Amino acid sequence: MTKPFTRITAALLLLFHPLSTLAIKFQIIEPQEVRMAQPNPEWPDDTPTYNATALQAELDAHRATWNAFVGKSKNYDMSFERICFCPEQWRGPFAMRVRDGNVQSATYTSEAMRESTVDPDMLRGLLTVDGVFDKIQQGLDRRYVDLQVTYNETAAYPASFYSDMSKRIADDETTFRISDVLLVDQ
């Protein structure tokens, strides 16, 4: 549905526009029909590049093995890194303390960020092992175009997880890396 650009609309725009104090040549624009953009046949295909059934089976098996490995307490320490087109303070790497399945504390481990402290509000954005499993499931559910997962052979946690939501979107690719998981009695 299109709305015509009328003289009243044009007058109101001029009246409330921040540059209205400048001398502006004013021309009435005739109403035009607005059309939805059509897909460009030259755009990359967003069909997933992986076997979703096989990846789902792998995810379920590794999550079950991880849950058996960590037990009900979900207390462990780990290293976590996010590789993305995002601010440095979100990338890490971090040394994290996870207690009862929640990030209790985190510190930067890179030389560049070592002197900085992790903002307590940011702890909610850091992913536990279960959080990365959930991100993998989210990618499968939303049919991301590319998902690549490497699991730790002993504890079955996702050691590396790469995702790309769409080939048509720049800088949406993200990689999560987990290492140095150490179970903690508490």
SSE topology:
Layout: H1 7-16, H2 52-70, E1 76-83, H3 88-91, E2 94-99, E3 102-108, H4 129-141, E4 146-151, E5 158-164, E6 174-183
Helix pairs in contact: 2-4
From the spread of the alpha carbons, the general shape counts as: globular
The profile of the biggest β sheet is: 6 strands, antiparallel
Instruction: Return the string of H and E elements.
Output: HHEHEEHEEE
Radius of gyration in whole Å, from Cα? Answer: 25 Å
Number of helices: 4
Strand content: 15-25%
Given as residue ranges, the uncertain stretches (5+ residues, pLDDT < 50) are: 1-16, 18-24
Through-space gap between termini: 62 Å
- The order of strands across the largest sheet is 3-2-1-6-5-4
Structural class: alpha+beta
Average of the residue pLDDT scores: 81
Tell me the helix content.
10-25%
Number of strands: 6
Question: Could you characterize what this model shows?
Answer:
This protein has 186 residues and is an alpha+beta fold. Helices cover 25% and strands 24% of the residues. A 6-stranded antiparallel sheet has the order 3-2-1-6-5-4. Helix 2 runs antiparallel to helix 4. The longest helix has 19 residues. The protein starts with 6 loop residues before the first helix and ends with a strand.
Keyword list:
single chain; about 190 residues; alpha+beta; 6-stranded antiparallel β-sheet; 6 strands; about 25% helix; globular; disordered N terminus
What is the compact description of this entry?
The protein is α+β, with helices and mostly antiparallel strands. It is built from four helices and six strands; from the N terminus they run ααβαββαβββ.
